[in-house]
Design brief:
alpha/beta, seven-stranded mixed beta sheet
Length: 312
Amino acid sequence: MHNRSDQFTKNLLRDGLSLVSAAETEVEVLAATQKIDVYSVPDPARESERAGMGLLGELSAEPSLFEPFHGTPGLRRVRHCLRKQLTWHHELERRARAAARSVAPDEDTDPPPQPEVAFPALVVISPGRPETVLDAYRCEPVQAGVYHAVPGLVMRVVVLAELPRTRATLLLRLLGSGRRLREALADLAALPDDAWEKSVATPLLVHFRHGIQEPTTDEEDDVSAEIRAWFKEYEQKLRSEERKEGRDEGRAQGRAEEAARAVLTALRVRGIAVPDAARERILAEKDPEALEQWLERAIVATSLAEVLDELS
């Protein structure tokens, strides 16, 4: 997955799952030249938060490989994902054995028992209904738009076209295109400003709008167009709010505080610790251009120094 829409998809899944899991993208499968799109391991300490994440929370309740497709996959492509699932489980077992040996390295002692490693689930996310896949693996519906394969495979298939238009499915519906993506963007805009979905999706939508204004020819052009349209509406909304708030100094101050909190939210989503001094500096900043620049940096930063050099 290399184009911008693919990167948006993986980052949206990773950052959503990072609220309740240890999530990574581009996980290398060492035994083969394969990469898992997103691998998620649930954090038991954040179980209550995961329970409030709707369908994505349900799907991430166990160690899982997430493999989203922008075209409805056939058997060949899903078999490729199943190979990754099996290879990754083998790698997890190898790591567990190595860790066990490091605890008891004495050659005169009996080798430690084979550690039991949970078999990771495979979550295939498809825009349309993959009939050949559902038939081949005897997938049964468990809820609208979600199918489970025979138990031994530990495979779930999510069909975006069949998901109900509810808040519980919103983050996953943002992975769609066309009418479904437009509906998801409208639903996102209608949420309260402090909604967790907005804290995850809005920074990514803003970021992945950048650099996609030039014409594209790949099959993901419709996704880029939807995000561009959303961003134009988002910019118009911000400009309208700024014009209104420009008439009232108190509202202008509130706008700056909101922008500062957006920077802090982006840093939190990226997993970057913010010391008290840096937090106070961000909240005290009133210059909208500075706050906008900080937000753009925070969306893709890996450290606080990349956002606020003077506070690093």
